[in-house]
Amino acid sequence: MSPPDSTSSSSQQAVIAGFIDAVAQQSVQAGAAAPEVRGSSWRLAVVNTVNSDGTILTSDAVTARRQESYPAPVAGDTVVIDLSPAGNWVCRGRLSTGADGWTLLTVGSGWTAGSSPDLPPAGRLKPDGTVELRGLVRMNSATPPSTALTLPGALTPPANKNLIAVSSYGIAYLQVTGGSGSIIHASRSGALATSAWVSLDDLSFVL
């Protein structure tokens, strides 16, 4: 009986070891691709479409359900999305873009934007869906009712909002027109003086 061929045995062992390594590598790759194996993970995404069912579609085609703390998404928002172990996507909300988020408002005919040391009229959308206003606007030739300012589309509510503002002549009554974004100086208390001003500071409403 001839002795075992050591060369043949070594070759077989090498084949078996290679097979085991290949199977192990495939298992690692499969685990990395399966959320139930790797657990939850999060990443950044950009909102492409806001759906009517409470979800958003990202620019890389992921559909994620919004949390209640993110009620007013806008296309272009940079957001955090989370993948659960079950494979469901959730959108946590909007991230800061590095700017303070204020957008200057369009000033109506007969009105002038406040200038230094006052701030010009501006608005921004907060993560909770509240629109915050600030700044000052002055009347030149306008008399109530008139359109003092116009909001951009992202800050425009679907329905009318009524606001009470501080002014140089007492109280100013403002109406934010739903759908159009016009801020109408509806009426006033006190005498109207030349270059009277209306302050938007501390005014806010929910979209």
Structural features, described:
It is a single chain. The protein is an alpha+beta fold and 207 residues long. The chain folds into two domains: 36-94, Beta Barrel (OB fold (Dihydrolipoamide Acetyltransferase, E2P)); 103-206, Immunoglobulin-like. 15% of the residues lie in helices and 40% in strands. The protein has two helices and 17 strands. The strands form four sheets. It has a five-stranded mixed barrel with strand order 1-2-3-5-4. A five-stranded antiparallel β-sheet has the order 7-12-15-14-13, with no helix packed on it. A hairpin with a 4-residue loop joins strand 2 and strand 3 (63-66). The longest helix has 28 residues, at 6-33. The relative contact order is 0.12.
Largest sheet: 5 strands, mixed, barrel
- The sequence of SSEs as H and E is HHEEEEEEEEEEEEEEEEE
End-to-end gap:
91 Å
The percent of residues in helical segments reads 10-25%
Radius of gyration computed on alpha carbons: 30 Å
In terms of topology, how is this protein built?
Blueprint: H1 6-33, H2 35-38, E1 41-50, E2 55-58, E3 63-66, E4 78-83, E5 89-94, E6 103-104, E7 106-107, E8 111-113, E9 122-125, E10 130-134, E11 136-139, E12 146-150, E13 161-167, E14 170-176, E15 182-188, E16 197-199, E17 204-206
Parallel strand pairs: 3-5
Antiparallel strand pairs: 1-2, 1-4, 2-3, 4-5, 6-9, 7-12, 8-11, 9-10, 10-17, 11-16, 12-15, 13-14, 14-15
